[in-house]
Amino acid sequence: MKGDGELSKSQRTKTFIITGIVLILLLVAIILSGLSAERHETIKEAMRDAVVHDINKINFFGLEVNPSLISAYTTTAMILVFAIILRIFFVPKFKIVPGKIQMLIETWVGLFKGLAEGNSPHRNKFVGAYIFAAGTYIFVGTMSELLGLQAITTEGHSISLPAPLADINGAISMGVFSYLIILSGGIAGNKFKGVLLTLKEFSLPISMSFRLFGALLSGMLVTEMVYYVVALSFVLPVVVAVLFTLIHALVQTYVLTMLTALFYGEVSEVHEKKPKNKKDKTKVLTEESIA
Fold first, then answer.
1. I need a labelling partner for 283 at 20 to 30 A (CA). Which of 186, 205, 218, 271 fits?
2. Mean per-residue pLDDT, 86-92
3. Cβ-contact 264, 185 below 8 angstroms
4. 140: which residues sit within 8 A by CB, 6+ positions away?
5. Vertex 261, ends 260 and 266: CA angle to 5°?
6. End-to-end CA distance of the chain
7. pLDDT tens for residues 136-169?
8. Is 158 helix (H, G, I), strand (E, B) or coil?
9. Are 71 and 163 in contact (CB under 8 A)?
């Protein structure tokens, strides 16, 4: 007798056919878009703009802004809407025996909870909540690049929105904010001494920022180069984009959250003065009395 979740032979066949049709349609769309794509800039200009964002600007309520700012707002909106949907429709239905969606959510939350508790055993609730939010933002923001969301530049060209942290300003903001979270842990655990412990790692926000920016930018540049060659714009760019984007999303999410939790745990650990050893004091007095 078949289980409730097992598909019959006819259902599996229909699923296979539908999946095949969808893949074929996507392949045709990729080929047509590759053949009809018009390049309004050279590869040199495309690579330069990916780094400094001085060509393609977007009009945002009268201000010319980088595309990454629109990506940041879009990513934030997607996360908030998804969180509201989960809270209203799914969280109240959680059970002791979790379903697939509940298990996925618990696994994602448990990943950051484990990082916080493992690297900051003394104070981990606040840093756990932060690395969960930061890790989710980094992962979703990086993966949003695969959606191919379009925007119109001030010159009337259509461009795909990059990852929010592919802009140096976004990467620096994330690195500095993570450093301030670490500083708050030092103050909470050791007051003024915690400030000194945190300031000792003055290069930490720089390394965090440029690690994020460099990793995401390298993936974007490689993908841009592959997409720019029309002869390869059928299947290879899709594979390259998915692999680079997924790897960078996972690695950078883990690295930044792990470093934040690790340094937070170091500076928030209470450093108490060691009491003087009474045995050593007694020994000194005995030697003085004998002398």
1. 271
2. 91
3. yes
4. 75, 78, 79
5. 100
6. 94
7. 999 999 888 878 788 888 888 888 788 888 888 8
8. strand
9. yes
